[in-house]
Structures are given as C-alpha cells and as structure tokens.
Amino acid sequence: MTAEQTEKPTQTLSQAAEPSPIPTPELREDNVEEDNIRQETYYDYAGNKVKGEGGFVTRVQAMNKNLVIAENWKDENGEAVPFGDEPYYRIEYTYDKMGNVNREKYFDKDGQLIRCSKGYAIVYREFDEYNRVEYEKFYDTDGFAIMLDDGAVSYRYEYNDAGEVIKKTKYDYGDHEVE
Length: 179
Known about the structure:
twelve-stranded antiparallel β-sheet, mainly beta, about 0% helix, globular
C-alpha cells in the first residue's frame, strides 16, 4: 500500500468526541434609536433570538441617566409578556438621593397596578447610611397599606457589623410589632 493509499481510520460512534454543551443564552444590548431606552435581547450560540432568564426574549428598560426607571419584557414576536411566573408585565422604579430603589410599582398588560406574586402592588423602602434596607412597607393597587401572608404590613431590619441581617421585625397596620 502506498502513502496515498493509506487507510484512514474510521471513527465509531463510541469513539466520537463528546458534543460540547450548548452555551447559556447570551443577553446582548441592541441598538435602539430612542434616547433613554436600553433594549437587551437573548441570543443562542448561532445568533438566534431565544428565551432566557425570566422567560422573555427581550428586556426594554427606560433610563434616567444610568438608572432604570421602568422595565418590561417581550417575546420573540415583540409582544409584551410577564416576567417569569409573575403576573406583572412592567415594573416602575423610583430612587432615593443615594441611588437606592426606594419604590417599586407593578403593572399588568393594560398598565393597571397589579399585585406581584408576593401579594403587593407597591413596595416602599428606606435605607440606612450604608445603603442597606432599613424599612419596607407594602401597598395594594389603591395605594393602601396591605397585610402580607405572614401578617406583616411592614418590616424593619437590623444589621450586625458585617452587614448581615440579625433582626427582621414585622409590624401591623398600627405599626405594632407582630410575632
């Protein structure tokens, strides 16, 4: 047998290389013509749009400087979708002077306030000098304080020197401590 006629080894199925795992979808920022809008879309390794974290294909964020003031999600056809298993289609955020999210509001597909899966439509927060949540209070779709499943209308948090929550106190409608 000559060098040109040398038999090439054949590879059996059991000898074939293991297929490489499919990479996690990559979230990439899209170019958007509008100012103050950031749009990000999930793509697979081949460049196709795919569902990613939260069950959406595209996340659209309204920005104020570098802060997200609202966000919503879309499917592969550009239709509004809720985030994951949540009932809401949009969240709006407000910030304190230090840039902490001090209010979140949840909205349905029609732009009406709706309760998230945790039971509230609005959450208000206050922060300490280290930007840690110090106080949270929960509201319904009409803006009235609402009691969560655990009996709390609000929480107050205390931290140790390492920044770990050491106490989470629940309060009722009258700001009385709840056991």
